[in-house]
Amino acid sequence: MTPLLSVRDLRVGFGSDPVANEVVRGVSFDLAAGQTLGIVGESGSGKSVTALSINRLVDFGGGRITSGSIMLQRADGTALDVTGANEHALRHVRGRDVGMIFQEPMTSLNPVHTIGAQIEEALRINRGLRGQAARNGALAMLDRVRIPDAKSRMGYYPHQLSGGMRQRVMIAMALASSPRLLIADEPTTALDVTVQAQIMALLAELRDETGMAMIFITHDIGLVAGIADRIMVMQSGLVVEQGDTATVLDTPQHDYTRHLLSAVPHFTAGRATRTDSPRTEDSDPVITVDDLVVRFSIGRGLFGSKGAVHAVDGVDFDLMPGETLGIVGESGSGKSTTARAVLDLNARKRGQITVRSSRSRRPIQMVFQDPFASLNPRLNVEALLAEPAIANGQHKDEALRERMKFLLNRVGLPEDALTRYPHQFSGGQRQRLCIARALMLNPEVVVLDEAVSALDVSVQAKVLDLLIDLQREFGLAYLFISHDMAVVERIAHRIAVMFAGQIVEIGAAQAVLSDPQHSYTKRLISAVPAVERRNQHFAIDTTQVPSLLRPVGYEPPKAQWRQAGPDHHVRLEAVS
């Protein structure tokens, strides 16, 4: 049987001499219709460049295929060697024959067009739909990827959606054209585990229904284990191992494959939580949040507001010195909005946030998800580290330079890093720089918003170990926001689960993870991907995601709680 895609000795290089600067070196594989190939490896291994070569998008990033062949069987039965195809032929391949889901949706979506218009455009170009048929098709795709209030969000612009929702829009756009081959480059990185499980179930369902083939690129072997028929492991542009999924996972032959498998954080349902809890009766919280409410008005005009998005509604928690509170929940649940309100970056409608500080004028600092976007590329490390101190009224003197050197040493970077620029560091090193900068003012609380989700698993493990070491050394308290339950299990003392703008369960990490009480927490934990769970199949969840859009003047009923343990509280669920 002729494969849908056959790649032979693919070599890709960059720069003025691409042959001398090869980043993909002799990659070969076959992919049949209805089959899924998982490509795994760390940053710089050549995964994405290999994928971008299949529809020649690598040409637009300065890359060039120097040798090899990419034979694609088209819907009309003809075979096309993509490496030698002209741009006219490639325009018909992209979208129709080969769909693509990119990792970073904000750079892939047009900021000046609504998401509805962008999905309609894909339907118009690739499926010939017009007018109401295109609008209905776009709405159906948004419903299928579980966008809440899909009809009203058709008119939203990309910046009005959370990162996870933007990624779902990207997935909807790619699937709208019904491609014969779908390339998914880290498509669920920004998604929480429940939505991730639903997207994986949706992709598997579409594959089975249509015979669509998939190439799934990820650094999460636990995720790809549940969907891939075959796995290809890449390192430094080379394929170091490939075979059927069970063989590669159960009996890996290459040292690098074994390294990747050992570095993956394994979720143990609360059996591996931290035991060094700093919570004591005789210490006061460093932060107390009481009845926090954040709302965003929409539809302002001559006749007032149509209503408001209740992004955060009645959130309460406290954070002790030296403690990590993990906040988990799906995209749009209010995790980041809560963190930004604590930092006074989001205006709150009501609520009290009390911060007790004994050592710093700026007791709360933040580390963001994307380290490269957080660092000014025109400033060297010395200027970047000095920036928060200077803004706080300090002078760039020898004492400040000694503080910089001390912190660089503590985050595992050499002193000569002071003269270098952000682009001269790896992703993990850049995140270490962001951590060092956050510590320049000797804060008592560090807010970490998905701070390790963009890192390779081995780098992620090192950064988590660093954060735990720094916490013990400096007595830091962490507000740790993440969608990765295995990561939260490793670092959190306590966990707060957020759903639809509200905390629905909170308590000691071991209690929440081992004995979840709220129905949403149970769904969250059951959806965690793992190598050990690769035979677990998820069904499409048709449960309607609750709307956060409320009419003017609406106030939710007061929350009712029950105690499930010594440090474990659960919000009572409404009886339907």
From TrEMBL:
Name assigned to this protein: ABC transporter ATP-binding protein
Organism: Devosia epidermidihirudinis
Lineage: Bacteria, Pseudomonadati, Pseudomonadota, Alphaproteobacteria, Hyphomicrobiales
Family: Belongs to the ABC transporter superfamily.
Cell location: Cell inner membrane
InterPro entries per the UniProt record, alphabetical: AAA+_ATPase, ABC_Ni/Peptide_Import, ABC_transporter-like_ATP-bd, ABC_transporter-like_CS, Oligopep_ABC_C, P-loop_NTPase
Recorded topology in the membrane: Peripheral membrane protein
Highest rank taxon of the organism: Bacteria
CDD domains documented for this protein: ABC_NikE_OppD_transporters
Keyword ATP-binding (UniProt): yes
Single GO molecular function: ATP binding
Domain ABC transporter per the UniProt entry, residue ranges: 7-261, 287-525
Keywords from the named record: ATP-binding, Cell membrane, Membrane, Nucleotide-binding, Transport
Cellular component aspect of the GO annotation: plasma membrane
GO biological process, one term: peptide transport
